[in-house]
Design brief:
With about 190 residues, the chain is of the alpha+beta class. The chain is built from 6 helices and 5 strands; from the N terminus they run αααβββαββαα. Strand 1 and strand 2 form a beta hairpin.
Length: about 190
Amino acid sequence: MTASDADDTLLPGVPDAFARLWTPHRMVYIGGENKPTDPGAASCPFCRAPGASDSDNLVVHRGVSAYVVLNLYPYSPGHLLICPYRHISDWTEATPQERAEIGELTATAMTVLRQVSAPAGFNLGMNAGEVAGAGIAAHLHQHVVPRWLGDANFLPIIGQARAVPQLLGQTRQLLIDAWPPSGDPSLG
């Protein structure tokens, strides 16, 4: 193979030994688009979401002091965030009512996700502070991440990409359809 031949293999559309999963939508996240530049509520997407259209902001359910929204940059299909309406950044700032409702909404989210997509398990958690991994540290939010056997393949580790096989709007509709009405005693 000559240098000229090697250069031909680098041209767009020319097959080579690599399979590629193009995820240009991830550049928005990587570039920090929609990430607040200041810690105030005016620039916070978690403060703006409840005041706009549920479908445009991927809101799945509204509670009294907290709401459920699909993560715009999910780790896996059905990755939900439970957010208090108030702009607070730390669990210790949440009222007892907010803590209780976030807990109840987390349990309901797990029940609904099991019904809709049968995950094998979940990652639950909050990243308190930017140093702890919070993408939006100024507004407290609980992650509910459904997990399946084998979902942590080489893509995130080597390719720095995730395969999410369902559009967010489709996922949102499945969750809304399965979400029990408020006050349903079967939420347990």
